[in-house]
# Entry
Amino acid sequence: MTNRDTHRVIPLMDLRPSGLAVPAAAFHADTRLAANGLIADLRGRALRDLRISVTDRCNFRCNYCMPKEIFDKDYAYLKHTDLLTFEEITRLAHVFVAHGVEKIRLTGGEPLLRKNLEQLIEQLAALRTPAGKPLDITLTTNGALLARKAQSLKDAGLKRVTVSLDGLDDAVFRSMNDVDFPVANVLAGIEAARAVGLGPIKINMVVKRGTNAQEILPMARHFKGSGMVLRFIEYMDVGATNGWRMNEVMPSAEVIALLQSELPLVPLEPSAPGETAQRWGYANAQGQHDPAAGEIGVISSVTQAFCGSCNRARLSTEGQLYLCLFAEKGYDLRSLVRGSASEADVQSAIAHIWQGRTDNYSEQRSTLPADQGAPVKRVEMSYIGG
# Structure
């Protein structure tokens, strides 16, 4: 089996579009906005979750994210001087927290490729919400470097990790990561994370019809009762390089039906406002949730849009603020933190950007023809994280 489609047409385009200008009203005395711990967009969605990409590099070449045909040895990654420094990231994070952010997720690319990442985690772990509470600091990784880094990440203040794992069959996994990386090494990283207390651990599996759908049940069997939460993610039309087609999407409803054929499930309530995953618990003989067996989740951003409760902003590796995973452009914050902008300026800029937000791409997608591919003008997931 292969995850390659030899007939895919990958459009050539600027994968890192220039940033949008911050609204000028943010800097006018009569329209400046200060942080008050709660800002909402035009649909009433509060800002609670910040995803920070710390690198545009990755050691995998999964074709739904960084296909080798584009991200080859000649691909021009960002220069180190273009990246936000840890101090710049922390300065921006401080302002986001003042606006109500309670959770920060570090992403990439592969975030563990960023040198001395523990120093950034230490800085972020020192931040507090307006109510004086520590932040929920987490990280999404492919697990390749996790075994060697788990202890230092925990010591730096990281709370938990999410590991991307698209199958247990070694041949399928090596094919999907497209760098011949063995699944055993990722499993070793997961075990190391559990051993040092980076939990509860979440395992994310992107399901692509015709590629790894046969891994759904083996993955569920493996992680049932492990204390980890396995989540199945619909293959998404992120970016312009993965050749996305709707017929390769396996709807979450089908995933649940397949699981129910062997492993009875009961629906669970969301654990937090704006949660992207629908939760399902393994049922006992009486048809009730068995906490010892655990739960799974499904993220259905293609077939069941959750735009209405989306509370996430994304900060790219070079300091552009994106309001949606499917956005075309972001707002340039790096020029503010590297210029003469005061903290009040940055506060007002972020407030104006968020309060003008209307993004609802997944809802719009549902109106497109079923056989239509992804629009080409989309920022790459490897640039702003998942």
Summary: Residues 1-14 have pLDDT under 50 and may be disordered. Residues 109 and 382 are 5 Å apart (CA to CA). The domain at 24-384 is CATH 3.20.20.70 (TIM Barrel).
